[in-house]
Amino acid sequence: MRRIFLMLVLNIPFLIFAQSTAKRKLKPSDIYRLQTLGDPQVSPEGNWIAYTLTSIDSALNKRNTDIWMISWDGKQSVQLTSSTDAETQPRWSPDGKYLSFVSTRQGATNNQIWLMNRLGGEGKQLTNIKDNLEAYSWSPDGKKILLTIQTLLDTAKPKTPKPLVINRYAFKRDIEGYITQRQPIHLYLLDVETKKVDTLTS
User: Fold this and answer.
1) Which of 51, 137, 166, 194 could join 40 via S-S bond, C-beta 3.0 to 4.6 A?
2) Domain extent at residue 63
3) What is the pTM for the complete model shown?
């Protein structure tokens, strides 16, 4: 029942839009008006829901994802990020005082974890990861964050490309292309205060 109510709350803006707009035929340009909600995260005390809102910028021909939060009763809605860089994976700190997210803002090459006070203010960069951050999770005491990182293999292209060796059923993936080598994934532990990262698996 709680999950059904959560879905209804997140879809309130779309229900209002559908009711207040006169019927007309669809146009190809309407695709740019579509917005996508995702990754809802309920705050520890249960009063707020953080989520991502993805929209399309037709002028720049790119998608942009921002983080919003809405009160449980649906009466208050607050936009937390508004940069041109995507912000994803919002996660509440266990004490509910902070909201972390993942972004490549400020020219970062790879996704980094950022931390912002839930009351407002600019997010502060928490990590400086050289490889590909897949996921992360707060420890129950809020002092550490578990990182799931994919180690990037050497992607330098030789002058004479080697032949592709395909030995799997799923041999290709969008954006990544042909999957010829398995990228190793390992776990790390980040100390939030000191920003020190310890290796858990190798």
Assistant:
1) 51
2) 2-126
3) 0.76
Spatial distance between the Cα atoms of 85 and 69, rounded to a whole number of angstroms:
18
When divided into structural domains, the chain yields a total of 1
Q: Report yes or no on 168 lying in a domain.
A: no
Q: What is the pLDDT of residues 103-128, one digit of tens each?
A: 998 877 789 999 999 887 888 999 99
Neighbours of 37 (CB within 10 A): 16
Q: How many Å apart are CA 133 and CA 181, to the nearest integer?
A: 18
Inside any domain, residue 99: yes
Q: Please state whether beta strands 177-178 and 98-103 pair in parallel, antiparallel, or not at all (unpaired).
A: unpaired
| 155 within domain boundaries | no
pLDDT greater than 60 at residue 132: yes
Question: Is 50 a domain residue?
Answer: yes
Q: Is the distance from CB of 53 to CB of 43 less than 8 angstroms? A: no
Beta partners for residue 20, in sequence order: none
Half-sphere exposure of 195 (CA within 13 A, CB side): 10
Taking the CA atoms of 69, 115, 134 and 42 in sequence, report the sign of the dihedral they define.
Answer: negative
